[in-house]
Amino acid sequence: METVYELLKISLPAVLVMLTAWAVIRNMLQNDQEKRRQELLLQTVKTVTPVKLQAYERVVLFLERISPESLIMRTAKQDMTSQQLHSALVSSVRSEYEHNLSQQIYMSNEAWEMVKNARGTVVRLINAVATQLPPAATGEELSRLLLEEVMEMETEPCRVAINYLKSELARIMG
User: CA 33, CA 56: separation in Å to the nearest integer?
Assistant: First the structure.
């Protein structure tokens, strides 16, 4: 019995020291792992944030470029017919959109939906106005009618999307 007691006097403190060392080492390793994870997260944020900002900038530029006023200024030529201008306007919107499709990776689904809705609304507006004109109409007539339609709108579709993107970016940047 005395031998068991002597063994316990020796082994019990050794077991306690071993358990304490194990707990301390485990805690240190977890803290180190958490610190590394935080550093990696911070590095990722430092890398992704500028790219994300750039994506929002490009999409806002896209929306500005497809706004009917801007489209007409860039696309309309002196001797175009309404059909030629109509085709050029729609083609320009599609081209701009395809050029900026990859930006959706950096945006929320809601923001990208706003962008798609703005693009769709602009194309529908161009198509609707073009169908109101006779085939022999000039590009100037299409431009004038299109601008009148935009002025009658409560809010221009591209402006709605831009405002949404600005508000979302403000939330993200906090």
Answer: 34
- Helix intervals (H) in 67-156: 68-75, 82-100, 109-132, 139-152
Residue with tokens 């200024």: 73
Q: How many CB atoms lie within 10 A of CB 76?
A: 17
**Burial class of 62 by CB neighbour count within 10 A (0 to 12, 13 to 18, 19+):** buried
- Per residue in 82-99, pLDDT (tens digit) is 999 999 999 999 999 999
Cα distance between residue 35 and residue 41, in whole Å: 10
Who's near 156: CB < 8 A, 6+ residues apart?
67, 68, 150
pLDDT value of residue 7: 81
Question: CA–CA separation, 91 vs 119, rounded Å?
Answer: 12
Sequence letter at residue 140: E
Q: What does the pLDDT look like over 99-142, one tens digit per residue? A: 999 999 999 999 999 999 999 999 999 999 999 999 899 999 99
Q: No. of H helices and E strands in the chain? A: 6, 0
CA distance 152 to 94: 24
User: What residue type is 170 in one-letter code?
Assistant: A
pLDDT-based confidence at residue 147 (cuts at 50, 70, 90): very high
Q: What is the token pair recorded at 141?
A: 């007539």
What pTM does this model have?
0.76
